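Final report, closing paragraph on structural work. Over the funding period we assembled a curated collection of sequence-structure pairs, and we close with a single example.
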Amino acid sequence: MSDKKITDYQQNTLLAHAGLAPRENHGVVNPPVYHASTITFATMEQYETRDTIAYDGPSYGRSGTPTQFAFERAVTALHGGHKSVAYPSGLAAIAGAVNTFVKNGDHILVADTVYGPTRSRVCGTILARAGVDVEFYDALIGAGIKDLVRDNTVLVYMESPGSLTFEIQDVPAIIGALKGTGIVTMIDNTWASGYFFKPLAMGVDVVVEAATKYTVGHSDAMLGTVTVATENHYQLLKAMANSYGYHAAPDDCYLGQRGLRTIGVRLERHQSNALEVANWLQSRDEVARVMYPALPSDPGYKIWKRDFAGASGLMGVELVDAPKAAVAAMIDSYDLFGIGASWGGYESLVQSCYPAKIRSARPWTGTGPTVRFHIGLEDTVDLIENLSRGFEKFNAARK
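Its predicted structure, as stored:
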């Protein structure tokens, strides 16, 4: 038998096997779903040592079951990390991870282009009430992040590409500038997932993802993950998750692990579809610009090409100046693009968005209405036909 570790294999091979233990489950390929609250132990010694580092089994249902642990092992292998913790949603993962490393009186730096609820709910509500000073920085700052560091700065939070407008951050430059400071670096990596971008390999300490999106991949489960590089960070993270009572449901962990098996083939198709649609959109007179880092015309293309192995199906589009009614007429005409705020599933989605309302460090300079598309797994000829019909409605409403 080979003595190779699962992480010694190529990525798609890893995804097909990570977290599996059929010999421990009567030969069943996929780890079964364990529903549990109470966990019993054979001896008093086992019970009293259940929360030590030496023990890696279930200790209470809320702290995790074999289903959750199998999912976490697979996520960790994909990221090349030390360990992972699963959460009941992406936002829970963000809140749980950030709160692990901050306290009253601390200062943190957060990219101006982060996911809306990260800004409004985690930073604007939870951290504000806790007395944590949040400063939003220009996502394009790169090594200049060092100039914003204070004596009480404990965390730098990144998201690349940025939410809604898809700015690519120079992660290696930021990590290099912070070397030796002891500041924890954290990134929301949901857009590329662990498949197309490996932040831990670039020196990032903590990777947060909404597994609801591409990991699950089928728009039917809420799930979040946080993967760390060190045992110390894992212990802090797991302790805080337990303190908050976070519990990733076993059925959702099962769906997350099942989704991981096909994330490679799905993301490759999302990418090829999105590139074709993005290039078509660029040719349209109704489009002022397409915000998609995989396009050579995108301002972030060079950094994306250097750091990423691919692109997902999510992009932004700034339209030419038009009334809101014209945008509504366009979107309402679609039958293949659902109107919804999530993404990462097999289906295409669209939503209107207003980046100017949630920018402070670098004001949004776009002048036309902005929409966000998630390009799904449908045939592109059908998606483009839908989009073309939408532009007909858009133009008619502009007259």
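The longest helix spans residues 250-282. Residues 144 and 322 are 37 Å apart (CA to CA). We thank the funder for supporting this effort.
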